[in-house]
């Protein structure tokens, strides 16, 4: 199958990206080229094969629920574009 | 003294013997960077002042030995950009574990190296900070994504440098720049503080002039880390001890799928010569098959973008990184910060990832790719029942010209055709110089079973004891000295 401009606009919205009208056709063509290459996967016989999510098939480790890290709030906030009173500032969300 | 011509272990011995001081060593390489990097664009941030301090205070097994870090590793107090406008002025509040370990070993950080944006690229042309040039010919690419690290080591701007490898980003630039580079087993080095691209594939490693130097640094940067939930909880082998084992009886698999029409003739010839050399050293070459090789690039371009689209959702213009001017509401803030902060290749991969994970396509693309990934891994397991290591070309051809493949993403992606399989299966791989084709270097790739880094370094070291490909240097940066 092949993606249309409307599909690209939908993907952009999902990924919180914006493509200009000139860019959107170029991205569409590039994605279609890539997906044509990727589509060769569909012919592979994978019946009865377990999906491999992780190269070493390891299980997620657990640790005791105890505080191990220092509170680094000030250090972390220092990298934010805008803060106030120890909080991240964003544009008004609720009118 | 031409300190930049020496290998790391020779510099280590020189420091111990008092032939020169750590300060002299640091100043030498800082001066090399100032003199030569304008031609290469391999270093994006200098750490000169800190480096001088580190050199005077250095303690540890690698005390006073300088290195460059790929700009994907977080360095506390030192700008870390990941090659992106998104992190153009970001200063991390902590060190990556790899950085922490190499600091603790006494190494001196000279600066941070250029790279493809968020490690997405095979030519170092997607960096926000401009492309890197190949020291063997400035009109050619150095490979990617760790192109800055590879070019800097090849040009003698640092004796070693760190890198990361998600689909070939250490081995491919090592091959194209004529140096040695190793990607260890998935989980061998901590991913903590290593900016995430594709979490089930990303692995840290190192570039150097020789396998012996790689062994020195890899041993210091490896090991279990409770801060990385996928870190391998098993002891690190003593790679240096294994280097001197003879190769008699070694079984080397030669996968026939690596030697097909796509392999450029000169590159193929150098690799055949290298295999013949291994045979002379006592190895037996065994013809093997990895039947799903042709599916590795398609699998990768589903799994890597899928994981990337998820990992890169954190860049929202709120907590750190680039924020657009005058946002009109929260969605506009997210959307414009991301569209303005990410470059084209990153937006392309986020779009692919979003598509293959979206409702209705997940099974056909993502789940199918994960199933084929297992088949690829099974192919390796079958091959390693008969052989100790697998050997073949690292790339299909030597470096290509800047701009040559920029317009065709699929042609660019095929650069990693021989390297991706090891990432999919989580296996260690390395590339060593195998000689020149029309004056440009090509690499021999070795891949082994999980946690056989010691064996791979041993084979590479024995090869380098018998040959001098790894001693070839780009003349423009080593004027008249060799």
Biggest sheet of chain A: strands side by side, in what order? 1-2
Major sheet summary line of chain A:
2 strands, antiparallel
Number of strands of chain B: 11
Helix tally of chain B equals 16
CA distance, first residue to last residue of chain A: 43 Å
What's the tally of helices of chain A?
Answer: 3
Mean pLDDT of chain A: 92
- The tally of beta strands of chain A, per DSSP, is 2
Low-pLDDT stretches of chain B are none
- Structural category of chain A is mainly alpha
Largest interface: A-B, 50 and 76 residues
Strand content of chain B: 5-15%
Q: What overall geometry of chain A do the principal axes of the alpha carbons give?
A: flat
Q: How do the helices and strands follow one another from N- to C-terminus of chain A?
A: HHHEE
Q: Distance between termini of chain B?
A: 14 Å
Unreliable residue runs of chain A: none
Residue share in β-strands of chain A = under 5%
State the shape of chain B. Answer: globular
How would you characterize the overall build of this protein?
The complex is a heterodimer of chains A (95) and B (482). Chain A is built from three helices and two strands, in the order αααββ. With 95 residues, chain A is mainly alpha-helical. In chain A, a hairpin with a 2-residue loop joins strand 1 and strand 2. The model of chain A has no long low-confidence stretch (mean pLDDT 92). With 482 residues, chain B is an alpha/beta fold. In chain B, helix 10 packs across helix 12 (344-357) and helix 10 (293-311) crosses helix 13. Chain B starts with 7 loop residues before the first helix and ends in a 16-residue tail after the last helix. Chain B is built from 16 helices and eleven strands. In chain B, the strands form two sheets. Chain B has an eight-stranded mixed β-sheet, with helices on both faces. Chain B has a three-stranded mixed β-sheet with strand order 1-3-2, sandwiched between helices. The interface between A and B is large, with 50 and 76 residues.
